[in-house]
Each structure stands twice: as structure tokens, then as C-alpha cells.
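Now read the record:
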Amino acid sequence: MKKLVVLSGAGISAESGLKTFRDSNGLWENYRIEDVATPEGWAKDPDLVLEFYNQRRKQALDAKPNAGHLALKQLEAYYEVTIITQNVDNLHEKAGSSNVIHLHGELFKSRSTRDENLVYDIEGWELKRNDRCEKGSQLRPHIVWFGETVPLMETAVEITHAADVLIIVGTSMVVYPAAGLIDCVRPGVPIYVIDPNVPDIRPRKNLTFIPKPATTGLSRLAGQLITSATGGV
């Protein structure tokens, strides 16, 4: 099977009713990014940060994968699919995708504030003060905040470099280092960019823009890729 790599962003989750990143007004669900998505925000008011992510988790519990998520799952029958997502929700997993890398962390996991390698699943939707790791320190959301390194970036670069096809969907391509993954593909690899607002990406050979929402754009592209993989059968 050919290797198909997908870089997904907030646009695909937005069609399931989730706002997973910054709106044009600099807010995330009416909160300042600096207050809820930075180490400084956590140090200043951990209760606010815990409550913010508790509400995001509660909202995500009811969210359902959309046609875009389901189209990516369908492609697994014809390609070796790896999804590199900037989203912290679990909608790709809910759709059945089996190989998902979360660059910016996972909403339904917590981690130790003493040892970042101690990561735990969150049962339900609440993470509370005095929820502690096995070493006795407070648990924090397992989210890569602004100003923190992206631990899985090297893995994402290696996977992207091995891709036979790259799909970029629902991302403005302005958040680094994730946006730099487009430059990691080998020469000649086809790149498909799906977004109703075409991102500002340097033109290159084998680059196709699909100015559609994730749901309709991915459904259409999946059909084309399946036809290609099956020889039109």
C-alpha cells in the first residue's frame, strides 16, 4: 500500500461543532489564549485552566465525527494512512482511524507536572485540583501549550518524508512547527490542500487546492484516491 499522510487542523473539528484553536479575535471559546494555553497561564491560575479544559472535554464527549473524519477512515482499506493532527480532540479515533499522532497533545489525557513522561487517561471529563500522579505532583492537561516544545515533531517529520501522498485539511498553515511539514515531503509527491479559505502556501509542482470544507472536500478526494488505488475498478 502507498503511504498516505494527513495533516489535519481545527477546520475538520469545527464541522463537528468544536472550536479547537484560535478564532480571528484571538480567543478560544471566549478565553484569552494566554490565560488558558500557556505555562504562564497555568502558573497564574491553575483552577481556571483546569476548568477550561474540563469544559472542552465535556463538549467533546458529545461531538461526533463528520464525513471528513469518516472519509479518512475509509481510505485505510486502500492506503497506509497516518493522521498527524494539530487537534487535541479524539474525533479521528471516534471515526475509527487507527494511526493518529497528536502533535499538540490529547484532551482526554493528563500528565504529571513533575515528570512529563507520566501520562494518564482521564475517565469522564473532569480533571481536578489534587488529582496527582504516582510521584505526588498535580496533574495538568496533556496539552502542548504555546511556548512549549512539540515532542512528536521529529516523528511527524520522518512520517511526512516517507509519504507517497500528503493531504492537508482544515489548517491555516500559520502555526509552526506543524506548518513546516509541507516542506518535508519528497520531490514529486502529490499534495492536496483542502480548505474553503486557501492558505498562503508557496506554489509548487504537484500541489492541488480544493477550496471546500473538510466534509465535502475529503469525501470527494477520497473517492478519487480510491479510484486511483483500485485502477478504476
In short: The mean pLDDT is 92. The chain has two domains: 1-18+65-104+150-233, 19-62+108-143.
